[in-house]
Amino acid sequence: MAVVALATGLGCGDFGGVEPPPNLGPPLLALVYQGTSAERPLTELRLHPSSTDYRAAKNRLSQPLMPDASVDISDIAPGYYYLTVMRKRLSLPESDMLALTTAEPIALVSGRYRVWVFDESFRVFDPVKNPQD
Q1: Residues with Cβ < 8 Å from 13, sequence gap 6 or more?
Q2: Backbone φ and ψ of 22, nearest 5°
Q3: Band of the pLDDT at 19, cuts 50, 70, 90?
Q4: What number is the average pLDDT over the span 79-99?
Q5: What is the DSSP letter of 128?
Q6: Model confidence band, residue 14 (pLDDT cutoffs 50, 70, 90)
Q7: CATH number of the structural domain spanning residue 37
């Protein structure tokens, strides 16, 4: 069982229908987990086209992400995605999962998007030039 929370107003990467400049390079998520408990690592990151299909989307993390760690997620097809992150709700082995999902899709079209994940929220920043470009 998972607890799902919609993160409202946190999609700073939403361009409101305006395309970002094309010279920022391919989409890249620079994910930083700023959680407070090593017993609750971030276990999943999913990108999905509608708000209700996060379970069908592929987990983009190859291993759990511990607090104060970061990872770059590349190989993202340009598009509009809901972003869902998941971790245990409590620091107990039998704890339910907590899933945080953007309230609106985010335009992951071009550039490096910084994503800061906190215990019960996250923030997506507007893109900058992708250093891998």
Answers
A1: 106, 107, 108, 113, 124, 125, 126, 127
A2: -75, -5
A3: low
A4: 90
A5: B
A6: very low
A7: 2.60.40
